[in-house]
Amino acid sequence: MPPAQGDRPDTKTSKTLHNGIEVLELLARNPRGLTVSEVAEGVGVHRTVAHRLIRTLEEHRLCTRDPSKRVTLGPGLVSLAEAVEVDLRTVAGPVLMELAETQGATAHLVVPEGEAEARALMVVEPRGAHAHIAFRAGRVDPMDQGSAGLALLSAMPPREREREEVTQARSRGYAITHGEVTHAVSGVSAPVVGRQGKPVAAVGVSVLELKDPEAIGAAVAEAARRLAVLLPQA
């Protein structure tokens, strides 16, 4: 479906760059790839223009074509994402450490991985707790399971047949789950919303016993707000 008229760039911005970004966003929503004609239709440009945009993105390794000529996102995006994540880890580190110590629980920073998954970018364990949850960064879980994924979903527009827990998280500012991604472990997470109103991450804690959900929820939500303020302005 071509973009609506209101989504067109204004006359003071680069239409070509705008279209190129739209191509990347379209490919991100279609991980199995698209034909050049499908890209042209999705962005709302002539097939010749779509082909030229794709060739330019290919030169920068931002998209690629498989043997069947279907276009997918390219490996060049990985290095760009890694640079962003380095900055995010640097900014989030002190916030997560304070959250882990004050709550005596393992704190985590989770980022969206495409449209349907969430990946643990950072895990910080409390130094003074007698017992705590341990898991490695890099773990990927379905976005509709676990408090971090539900927190991310709560900062997005409502989806068809979304879980009641997502609706609740949208209302109170944090999500709570029990034993969804790890047996007997409860999670409390809040979304970190970027400058453009989209969730860039979720901050949360994992505990064996959730004694005071509201207090932990308030602490997690405050940590998410602090991190959102610290994010780069770009």
From TrEMBL:
Gene3D superfamilies reported for this sequence: 3.30.450.40, Winged helix-like DNA-binding domain superfamily/Winged helix DNA-binding domain (1.10.10.10)
Record's keyword terms, sorted: DNA-binding, Transcription, Transcription regulation
Domain IclR-ED: 69-234
InterPro entries registered for this protein in UniProt: GAF-like_dom_sf, HTH_MetabolicPath_Reg, Tscrpt_reg_IclR_C, Tscrpt_reg_IclR_N, WH-like_DNA-bd_sf, WH_DNA-bd_sf
HTH iclR-type domain segment(s): 14-75
Pfam families: HTH_IclR, IclR_C
Name the UniProt record assigns to this protein: IclR family transcriptional regulator
Organism: Nocardiopsis alba
